Amino acid sequence: MHWNIHANCQGTDFSGVYTGIKGDLGEKTREMAKRLLANPRIWGAFYIVIVLFFMELYYRKWNFSPDSFIVHQELNLFPISSTSTSPREKDRQSRPIKIPELSKIQAEVNLLTKEIDSESSKIDSLKEKQDSLDEELDKLFDENAQIREKNIEKFEEKELSDLDNRINEAERDIKNLELITEERSDLFFDYGYAIMISKLEVDLANLELERANKALEVSNKIVDEWGEFGNKELSRQLHLMHDERLEISEEIHETHLRMLTAQRNLNKSLDSWYSARVSALGRIDFLYYSIGISTTTTFGDIVANSHFIRLAVSIQLVLSVIAAAGFTNSLLPEKS
What we know:
Elements: H1 2-10, H2 14-37, H3 40-64, E1 69-71, H4 87-92, H5 102-183, H6 187-224, H7 232-279, H8 283-294, E2 302-304, H9 307-331
Antiparallel strand pairs: 1-2
Helix pairs in contact: 3-8, 3-9, 5-6, 5-7
């Protein structure tokens, strides 16, 4: 039986069957597409989808980049509202859409920018003055340091010279006695000179101790009266210039603070204007704009201002024309 079925299948031409099925499917698909295209509800839904899709696209682009649109505030004014006969009638008037004016914020931005530039120039000038003052301070400090070093050497020499001379004299005496003892071989004589040398060495040690104490006293006096060893006129100039440098540093710090405050105010002004501008238009406004594009009845109060938006408007116009043509064609009676 299986061999018979196989034999029958081998004798059957499937190409004709496939062609028939393909033809039936193609005809059914064409019929379905024809019925859909003849349905005005499909075209109406397609038109609404176009309007809503591009409304959302424009709204998101506006929030991301407000400069993509030009909004003419002059076209949004209601002159009738300013000539109301009574406050009650004025209250009943619809409020116009107010886009924040750039002129006011631009004036504020220009003022803050000038203030920042002025403070920055002032800081540069103060820093140049400070650098020049630092160079002069270094020059005077080195000159005064050299004078102080010489005066300290003179003071130390004056205070310690007497003890240094006595120490040198004691060292010479000890050396002379040692030479004499080397020339004599008398035991009693050597013993007496040894005692004398020992006494001189004790005296030398006392002199060295006295000199060390005196040197410590001199060092303390130098530390206590450090400023007195320099040139008094140069020291006075250094103090004055140091005070002036501190005043310049404080002024630079205060100027920096003022500049930072101005910068913060500038950022706040720009942010407030940006947020006010973005929040001025919502989805309703861009639904109005999208319907105007789809129906080619825009009034120029909102205008595309970027290549992307102009491309999107062009695509929306083409799709809207196709949808309108399809809708109109679906309403016409079919030709027999």
